[in-house]
């Protein structure tokens, strides 16, 4: 495989971005990161080093060697630009609410042959970035691999999980890139069409995440009888909205799956619970918020999801400025 054929970049060096880096690293080409610079404040996240304006040179490109202790950073437009133009696959691992802003300045620097893979919780960014793609192929994915960033450049795998990826629009990922991901990422599944799989994951997160944040409880606490009807209603609304968008989900098996995940992860605190406890922005807009938006678009209501959306937004308004 030539050097040119394996240029892979990862956008976002959070826990999942770094985990994927280490999974891809044994392949011939070490992937590289595009990360935000300057401000660590998620609210002012910006990747504009590649905008061509020298005054805005704030993104950094990080070359992390296989030994995670050694991390060489290169900043400046020249080195960032020269790698950007060779990128064949960009794996986007930032939070859903950061995707559009993160890609806005980076995309014009990538070749139109560069394939984009979005890997985040929740749904929605694929609709926002569709007009920005200029014919580039887009794949979507979801991963339930567990990872915890222990320091800036150190990550610990906390759980095995499935990674599901599939093509959404434009040219498909080339077979060599696909093969590289299949051989590097454990338990990876190619799922086409991908949208039903993303809706199923969305239903799991929509049922578990906001309830655990609002009730300040572990995932397992949701097995109590008092939450059963509410969880069934959340799933039912999602099945109806997904159907309106053209995606058929099986209500009974999906509800069973949600309760199964509650049981399997009973000792865990959901990511949204942790976001609220740590006073971070949550992914509610891309989880229950996405359901509510799609419901409105198709003339439906999703009252149970909307109530949860408002309750979590209320929690966030207590600490986000
Ligand atoms: O994905 C999760 C999350 O916390 O975001 C679940 C499946 C709910 C596990 O905690």
What is the fold named in CATH at topology level of the largest domain?
Answer: Rossmann fold
Question: How many structurally independent domains?
Answer: 2
Distinct small-molecule ligands in the complex:
ketopantoate
Percent helix, as a range, is: 25-40%
Structural class: alpha/beta
Q: Count the E strands.
A: 11
User: What share of residues are in beta strands?
Assistant: 15-25%
Task: Determine Rg (CA atoms, Å).
Answer: 20 Å
Low-confidence stretches: 1-5, 38-60, 66-72
CATH architecture of the largest domain: 3-Layer(aba) Sandwich
Q: What's the helix-strand series?
A: EHEEEHEHEHEEEEHEHHHHHH
CATH class of the largest domain: Alpha Beta
Q: Report on the biggest sheet.
A: 9 strands, mixed
Give me some keywords for this one.
single chain, 321 residues, alpha/beta, Rossmann fold, N-(1-d-carboxylethyl)-l-norvaline Dehydrogenase, domain 2, 2 domains, 9-stranded mixed beta sheet, two-stranded antiparallel sheet, 11 helices, 17% strand, globular, disordered N terminus, binds ketopantoate, KPA_reductase, EC 1.1.1.169, NADP
């Amino acid at each position: 495989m030539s050097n040119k054929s394996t240029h892979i970049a990862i956008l976002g060096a959070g826990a999942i971005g770094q985990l994927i880096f280490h999974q891809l690293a044994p392949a011939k080409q070490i992937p590289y990161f595009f990360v935000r610079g300057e401000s660590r404040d998620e609210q002012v996240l910006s990747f504009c080093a590649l905008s061509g304006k020298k005054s805005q040179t704030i993104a950094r490109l990080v070359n992390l060697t296989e030994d995670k202790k050694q991390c060489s950073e290169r900043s400046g437009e020249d080195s960032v630009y020269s790698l950007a133009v060779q990128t064949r696959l960009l794996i986007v691992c930032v939070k859903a609410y950061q995707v559009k802003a993160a890609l806005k300045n980076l995309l014009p620097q990538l070749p139109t042959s560069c394939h984009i893979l979005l890997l985040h919780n929740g749904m929605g960014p694929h609709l926002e970035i569709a007009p920005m793609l200029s014919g580039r192929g887009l794949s979507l994915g979801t991963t339930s691999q567990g990872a915890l960033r222990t320091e800036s450049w150190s990550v610990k795998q906390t759980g095995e999980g499935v990674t599901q990826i599939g093509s959404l629009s434009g040219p498909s990922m080339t077979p060599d890139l696909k093969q590289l991901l299949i051989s590097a990422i454990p338990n990876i599944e190619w799922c086409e069409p991908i949208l039903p799989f993303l809706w199923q994951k969305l239903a799991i997160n929509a049922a578990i995440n906001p309830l655990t944040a609002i009730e300040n409880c572990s995932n397992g606490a949701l097995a109590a009888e008092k939450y059963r009807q509410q969880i069934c209603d959340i799933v039912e609304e999602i099945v109806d909205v997904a159907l309106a968008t053209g995606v058929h989900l099986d209500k009974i098996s999906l509800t069973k799956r949600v309760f199964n995940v509650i049981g399997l992860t009973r000792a865990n605190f959901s990511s949204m619970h942790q976001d609220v406890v740590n006073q971070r922005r949550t992914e509610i807009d891309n989880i229950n918020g996405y359901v509510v938006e799609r419901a409105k678009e198709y003339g439906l209501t999703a009252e149970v999801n909307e109530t949860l959306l408002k309750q979590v937004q209320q929690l966030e308004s207590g600490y986000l400025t």
